[in-house]
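User: Need the bound-state model for cobalt (II) ion:
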Amino acid sequence: MTSGNWTPSSWRERAAAQQPRWPDEAALDGAVKELSALPPLVFAGEARRLQASLAEVSAGRAFLLQAGDCAESFLEFSADSIRDKLKVVLQMAVVLTYGAGVPVIKVGRIAGQFAKPRSADTETVAEVELESFRGHMVNSEAANVTARVPDPARLVSAYHQSASTLNLLRAFTTGGFADLSQVHQWNQQFVRSSTEGRRYEQIAAEIDRALRFMAACGIDLSAETSLHQVEYFTSHEALILPYEEALTRTDSLTGDPYDCSAHMLWVGERTRQPDGAHVEFVSGIRNPLGLKIGPGATAQEVLALCRLLDPEKTPGRLTLISRMGAANVARVLPSIIDAVGTAGYPVVWACDPMHGNTFLSDGGRKTRRFDDILEEIRAFFECHRRAGTWPGGVHVELTGDDVTECLGGIGDIVEDQLEERYTTICDPRLNARQSIDLAFRVAELLRA
Ligand code: PEP
Ligand code: CO
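Assistant: Bound-state model below.
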């Protein structure tokens, strides 16, 4: 912990980057009070189970798949969209399990991922200066002055949407939707549905053979709970601190504080100042933590953050999520891996190949190239191979919908197509087919 004086509100003594300018303090206090009285969204015991699974990742015995929206939306919220996002993650996980030969820990960017850090506090649209859109937990993306005013009632709406999302996820993941044979069938459909997909026929056939082998050994695939149900954890960026504080509760079993808004919380690249409010807040909660590290990070900085966030060197506590940009990985990551390893921090190493590879298309759309995303993962694997460390996972932005937001990949989306189905309210996401394509590519890398 940062200091002996940590409380859920001790972050208030520090400078907090990326906070909205709430116009009405009393309304904010009211929302926080309301949230503080509402039930927790997740249980401390579940967060501990995730931390134990992440400890397996840090030891090289499991792989982390963290994936979901850049920013969840209050408007595009339906059972179908939750189901389709889960379906893609399950499909990816089966392919990755095969590729890595170890269990894949599934963590969604979901059921709470409603707040965004922004590079500028304001933007100018049609000559009008507007406050930046900060995610539906804060304001609306509509381009007018009133829509952009931060509204604390949105904190409460975010909680309720998270609760119903989680409820559905829990039903899907235990109610048969995650059945391994079914997920494998979806993957076979993907492989058969295009010439590009056929490239993966061999991997799909090998998975098929493994399933038939198990059945032949007398394992009833439909009755085996571990093949029929999955554990799906939630995560989001701990950005809007009054919300996170309000959902922080003392676990009755251990007496420890847990932020019960999600199983895992991460600190973003823009809010990871060692003396800042976000680091102070997460240092005291006992959930497993993520920390984004960008191309400007130095080994010294990362070590200072490890000391603050994982002073006891607990396996599974801290996941370092590098997001360097494909071209920067080989230059920046090795010295960080070396310093963290030498100091003995048992971190999970994960790769976010999205955020360092964003650029503006000629048409002014934020986009990312599938090939850059894949290249960042390849470079990340290569650094870890050289260092003798385990490349523990990937962190991606995706949707189950057939959007056209990232370029290339299966279906080869080109710049002119970005306008067709560009529905993200923040960063460009991989669509379902690009996501599964990526999983097969990563499986190939893992097996190489
Ligand atoms: C994000 O994960 O959506 C994000 C904003 O990432 P980063 O902090 O790495 O820029
Ligand atoms: Co993003």
